[in-house]
Design goal:
67% of the residues lie in helices and 14% in strands. By secondary structure, the chain is of the alpha+beta class. It has two domains: 53 residues; 75 residues, ANL, C-terminal domain (GMP Synthetase, Chain A, domain 3), CATH 3.30.300.30. The protein has a three-stranded mixed beta sheet with strand order 1-2-3, with helices on one face. Helix 1 packs antiparallel against helix 2. It starts with a helix and ends in a 5-residue tail after the last strand. This is Stage III sporulation protein AF.
């Protein structure tokens, strides 16, 4: 493609140089006016020549290939966007739960797993929560209630593990 553009520009430049040389050598008067008209037509021909040589089947193939490549790139970006969005939602949800736990006086670590929504184009939603720490029954019950109320994650998808947090 670059080679085609380069050869087109070289052709236009050569045609312009030849037209300029002929115009400077032409005698004044009618001959010079006819020379200018002819030179303009030669330059016009040099400019539109690649369009006349263009094979429409090749052009259609190039456009189709470009469209397919663009669709693949868009699909890849959609997958990457969903992956990044899932990571952000997991991190932000974990930070929110950790903030609620700290408000209850709980020292713990929180891991959140997000899942894609059921509809096409849905965003990832928090699906499962794992809380690691030494929680009393009352703290566990209250944190479970808040997670259910604020994030709509049912108790069945909330796991609590005992571990001393340093």
């Amino acid at each position: 493609m670059i080679e085609l553009i380069r050869s087109w520009l070289v052709g236009i430049t050569c045609a312009a140089a030849i037209v300029a040389l002929c115009e400077s050598l032409a005698p004044a008067g009618t001959v010079r006016k006819i020379g200018r008209l002819t030179g303009g037509l030669v330059l016009l021909l040099a400019i539109v020549q690649p369009v006349m040589k263009l094979n429409m089947d090749d052009f259609a193939g190039i456009l189709t290939s470009y469209r397919v490549d663009a669709e693949v790139a868009a699909m890849d970006m959609g997958v990457e966007n969903a992956r990044l969005m899932k990571g952000i939602i997991e991190e932000e949800t974990a930070a929110y739960i950790l903030d609620k736990a700290e408000a209850l006086g709980i020292d713990c670590r929180v891991d959140v797993t997000a899942a894609m929504g059921e509809e096409e184009g849905d965003y990832p939603i928090p699906h499962k929560v794992t809380v690691v720490g030494d929680l009393t029954q009352d703290q566990r019950r209250e944190l479970t209630r808040r997670i259910e109320a604020d994030l709509a994650i049912p108790a069945e998808r909330q796991a609590y593990e005992r571990e001393e947090v340093e």
